[in-house]
Amino acid sequence: MFDLDKLVNDYLVPFGLKIVMAIVIWIVGGIVINLVARLVRSAMTRRNIDPTLVRYTESSLRIALRIALILSILSVCGIETTSFAALLAAAGIAIGAAWSGLLSNFASGIFLIVLRPFKSGDMISAGGVTGVVDEIGLFVTTLTTADNLRVYVGNTKVFGDNITVYDANAYRRVDLTAQLAHTVDLQDAVVRLKARVAQIPNVVEKPGVDVEILEFNPSGPVLAVRPYCHNRDYWQVYFDTNRAIAEVGGTAHWPVPATRQILMPPPGASAPGVPASAATSTATPPIAAGGGGATPTGALPNSPAP
């Protein structure tokens, strides 16, 4: 015969109590999790920790506490959690193997946030991209290039490559050259260029402008013109320096650099249009009228006067 009292007392009441207890634990646990997360966030904010790291820490803490809360509720309900934990660990390994690249970017993002080799607003060159850092995310770093393109670079590529931070120091050097002709007075050119380039806006006074002889080529000497400025003024100083070099050359009437060559015939060769026999003749050349100097008929070009 069906015993309703036994069903209620032995099954329904204990099961109902477990459900009520699970609901209470979930509610109280949620309140505790929110309280702990807020406390951690406030503590990290007071220490001026990067907002990205604060959000990451808070999210990770919430997820870990929720998982612990769920395991506690399952244990209270009488469900064995050992096998569940083993299954969760196996799933974590499988997900980690499948998302190895994504997790690598994630780990690199944590190192970028903690070590802080650069910050948002810095101009950097990393991962083959040069631009201003918009955001350091957990998986990618967002850059805006000089031609106003937004580029997303994986954190693994950024952290695993050389990082050049252009805004780290107070100033940087602008490298330009000035090609001069052979006839230009080098000392005068150096003085003129130093004085003119130093007048360009945003060129720092210390260190001063460097103008030195860089090399010599067939067209003449080459001067290295190197002003210094802050990175934000680099291109303005770059173009203004080129303009200043052109202005100084025009004001000083410098000739246009051109390659000069001297053709020297080999010994024994005749001049153009003169037979070889005449060039090699031992006869005494005729004397010009008026007692002038003698000029051999077969004189070679570029040869010294007798």
From TrEMBL:
<keyword id="KW-1133">Transmembrane helix</keyword>
<keyword id="KW-0812">Transmembrane</keyword>
<keyword id="KW-0406">Ion transport</keyword>
<dbReference type="Pfam" id="PF00924">
    <property type="entry name" value="MS_channel_2nd"/>
</dbReference>
<dbReference type="InterPro" id="IPR011014">
    <property type="entry name" value="MscS_channel_TM-2"/>
</dbReference>
<keyword id="KW-1003">Cell membrane</keyword>
<feature type="transmembrane region" description="Helical">
    <location>
        <begin position="93"/>
        <end position="115"/>
    </location>
</feature>
<comment type="function">
    <text>Mechanosensitive channel that participates in the regulation of osmotic pressure changes within the cell, opening in response to stretch forces in the membrane lipid bilayer, without the need for other proteins. Contributes to normal resistance to hypoosmotic shock. Forms an ion channel of 1.0 nanosiemens conductance with a slight preference for anions.</text>
</comment>
<keyword id="KW-0407">Ion channel</keyword>
<feature type="transmembrane region" description="Helical">
    <location>
        <begin position="12"/>
        <end position="37"/>
    </location>
</feature>
<feature type="region of interest" description="Disordered">
    <location>
        <begin position="265"/>
        <end position="306"/>
    </location>
</feature>
<dbReference type="InterPro" id="IPR010920">
    <property type="entry name" value="LSM_dom_sf"/>
</dbReference>
<dbReference type="GO" id="GO:0005886">
    <property type="term" value="C:plasma membrane"/>
</dbReference>
<keyword id="KW-0997">Cell inner membrane</keyword>
<dbReference type="InterPro" id="IPR045275">
    <property type="entry name" value="MscS_archaea/bacteria_type"/>
</dbReference>
<keyword id="KW-0813">Transport</keyword>
<dbReference type="Pfam" id="PF05552">
    <property type="entry name" value="MS_channel_1st_1"/>
</dbReference>
<dbReference type="InterPro" id="IPR006685">
    <property type="entry name" value="MscS_channel_2nd"/>
</dbReference>
<feature type="transmembrane region" description="Helical">
    <location>
        <begin position="63"/>
        <end position="87"/>
    </location>
</feature>
<feature type="compositionally biased region" description="Low complexity">
    <location>
        <begin position="270"/>
        <end position="288"/>
    </location>
</feature>
<comment type="subunit">
    <text>Homoheptamer.</text>
</comment>
<keyword id="KW-0472">Membrane</keyword>
<protein>
    <recommendedName>
        <fullName>Small-conductance mechanosensitive channel</fullName>
    </recommendedName>
</protein>
<comment type="similarity">
    <text>Belongs to the MscS (TC 1.A.23) family.</text>
</comment>
<feature type="domain" description="Mechanosensitive ion channel MscS">
    <location>
        <begin position="102"/>
        <end position="164"/>
    </location>
</feature>
<dbReference type="InterPro" id="IPR011066">
    <property type="entry name" value="MscS_channel_C_sf"/>
</dbReference>
<dbReference type="GO" id="GO:0008381">
    <property type="term" value="F:mechanosensitive monoatomic ion channel activity"/>
</dbReference>
<dbReference type="InterPro" id="IPR008910">
    <property type="entry name" value="MSC_TM_helix"/>
</dbReference>
<dbReference type="InterPro" id="IPR023408">
    <property type="entry name" value="MscS_beta-dom_sf"/>
</dbReference>
